[in-house]
Amino acid sequence: MSDVLIRVRDLTRDYRLIKRREGVVGGLVDLVRPRWSTLRAVADVSFDIAPGEMVGYIGANGAGKSTTIKMLTGILTPTGGEVTVGGLVPWKQRRQYTRHIGAVFGQRTQLWWDLAVVESFRLLKKIYEVPDDVYAAQMGVFNELLGIDEFLHQPVRKLSLGQRMRCDLAAALLHKPRILFLDEPTIGLDVVAKENVRRFLREIRDLQGVTVILTTHDLGDIEQLCRRVMIIDKGRVHFDGELEELRRRTGHRVRMTVDFREPTSGARLATVTAGLPVVWQEGEGRRHVAEFRRLDVAGADVIKRVVNDCPVRDLALAEPDIEEIVREIYRDSAAAAAPAPGRSA
Amino acid sequence: MDDAQGTLARLPERAFWPQVRWQAGIFGAYFGQFVKTRLAYRMDFLVDTLGVLASIGIQLAVLTTLFSKVSALQGWSFEQVLFIYGFSLVPLGLFNLVSVNLYGFSDAYIIEGKFDRVLLRPVNPLAQVLCESFNISGLNEIALGLVVTVWAGIRLGLQPGALDVLALLVLAPTAALVYLGVFLAITAVSFWFEDRMGIAPPVYNVIRFSRYPLTIYSLPVRILLTFVLPFAWVAYYPATWFVGGADLKFVAALTPLVGLVVFGGAVLVWRRGVRNYTSTGT
User: Fold this and answer.
1) Last residue of a domain, which of A247, A263, A278?
2) What pLDDT was estimated at residue A1?
3) Which of A182, A303, B85, B215 is most buried, by CB atoms within 10 Å?
4) Which CB contacts under 8 angstroms, 24+ apart, belong to A14-19?
5) What ipTM did this prediction achieve?
6) What is the pLDDT of residue B250?
7) Residue A99 with chain B: CB contacts under 8 Å
8) Given A247, A282, A303, which residue is the final one in a domain?
9) What confidence tens digit (pLDDT) does each residue in B82-113 have?
């Protein structure tokens, strides 16, 4: 598994935007002499992905995630840098390349709205020239793992979001692609449906060795699917490594929410945990929030002190969500280096 | 799959004719699916047929009324005008059948981003856009156009030979390419500009002029329809193969060339547009 399937070097993408002038006259002037500004959406991104890897690509909205995915799928031509996937350049050899990839882009279905699911699959079979035996085998796998049998004859527009996502996954994998791109594959799904999608992705990876690149907001997706995480912000990769390493960097920060039986003052809580590296956030009345790092102190010690000294009704520990970690990582690297150039907004 | 771990297998490129055959197969598959979804709405098809019948009926009534006052129009008899009118419906139907996705292309494909999906599939993007929906009225127009043409032909006492049948089979589709080319070029503009003003509808209205003998118009209109918006090549020029004099047969025979040039030029514009789309990522 040491060889490289996806090779990305100094990938850069600029967007040209018109700087709008104000007013009607300004609008007319814009038509004749537009003032352009450049927005660098992706800046000098480099990485390698080995066959069979599952990589989580995360970042806030506008961080450059989808721009990167669009370049990797060949929809968009980069401004600079190079991408080769298995010896092909996605945007140059599109017709060769697209046979080897599958993609599910967020909420937008890749299927035909009015067609019955099975008809969509038949059309895709024709488009991707899937041999009969492969088609039958893949449909068998999808029925077993996704249970798409139940709604195979319904038109796509009548499916629930969860059912549609299952169909979209099956459609993207029908031609047995080597690489699967997923943009927010679990967004909007309920807990059970989310779990189904994750289990399916794990199984299909084990079964067919497909390489998966997924963007997500959901830490659960990353935890259950990806060993490797890449964090992008303002077009730059700020972290590329294992999830465990990411946690370690943030020191396993936890947030503890406590509901007391009676109103409690912040000052009192500060004395209760005096000596422990715990920070109480500003709170009033019965609910207070504390933050600490598991590297510095065991959760049990903090809880023992609080519970012993004050009457507690309920208590919850939560890890920071992915967005918080991303913000933190970005703060760290922004402090380490000068702010990324070429961005005005 | 037998790919090595780090490489993607390259499939051999198809030669020209196998590629055409394959593309035709894709077209057939899309069309078959479309018909299947439409069969669920049989009433729609019936209503549409009645609608097309009514609109063609009205235009025939206008022609009949006109010719009840005059016996000829710039030397064209009722039957000849009728023949040209009927013939014009065949390319128009072919064009309407496949062109439905060109309207609203900017909204559906560019702004909503459906074009991304098109680029993710190993089929020519233009072929996908044209195949993703059809306008079934086109079939009605083709059928009724043939009925009118044949009826006018019988009244004119035409004795069609094998060459004439062949001419019809070649002239009608290549004439449709003229329409398709003009509207494809207009559509492709939305790769650069969001088509807010809508140049397509006024151009579409010019189609009406193409249904009648060109010689009834003034010289500027004739020049416009021959060279600028070459809709005269959709009905008048090709129809003169059948109803014009022998000297006009040569002009009629130019129709396939005009069709291919107009459509070919439009495809070039379209391709540049696709390149612009992938390089600007609108």
Assistant:
1) A247
2) 44
3) A182
4) A14/A38, A14/A39, A14/A40, A14/A41, A14/A79, A14/A342, A15/A39, A15/A41, A15/B280, A15/B281, A16/B280
5) 0.82
6) 83
7) 11, 122
8) A247
9) 999 999 999 999 999 999 888 888 888 888 88
Residue type, B136: I
Element (H, E) at A183: strand A179-183
Chain segment A53-108, per-residue pLDDT in tens = 999 998 877 788 889 999 999 999 999 999 999 999 999 999 899 999 999 987 77
Q: Which of A13, A40, A96, A156 to mutate to test the interface with B (most CBs of B within 10 A)?
A: A96
Q: Are residues A140 and A73 in the same domain?
A: yes
> Which of A269, A107, A127, A264 has its CA nearest to residue B131?
A127
Q: What is the CATH number of the domain that holds A129?
A: 3.40.50.300
Residue closest to B256 by CA, chosen among B264, B266, B246, B248: B264
Using the Cβ of A31 and the Cβ atoms of chain B, whether some distance falls under 8 Å is answered with: no
The edge-to-edge listing of strands for the beta sheet with A35-49 is A35-49, A6-19, A80-85
Closest CA to A209 of A181, A185, A178, A182: A178
- Tell me the shortest Cα–Cα distance from B271 to chain A, in angstroms: 14
- Rounded to whole angstroms, the maximal C-alpha distance in chain B is 80
Count the neighbouring beta carbons within 10 Å of the beta carbon of residue B12: 5
Return the pLDDT at A222: 85
Identify the three-state secondary structure at position B152.
Answer: helix
Find the domain containing A279 and state its range. Answer: 252-319
Which of A38 and A331 is assigned the larger pLDDT? A38
Chain A residue at shortest CA distance from B8 = A86
Q: Is A22 on the interface with B (CB under 8 A)?
A: no
pLDDT in tens, B116-174: 889 999 999 999 999 988 988 899 899 999 999 999 999 988 888 888 889 889 999 99
- The CA-to-CA distance between both ends of chain B, in Å, stands at 36
Angle at A314 between CA A308 and CA A317, to 5 degrees: 90
Number of domains in chain A: 2
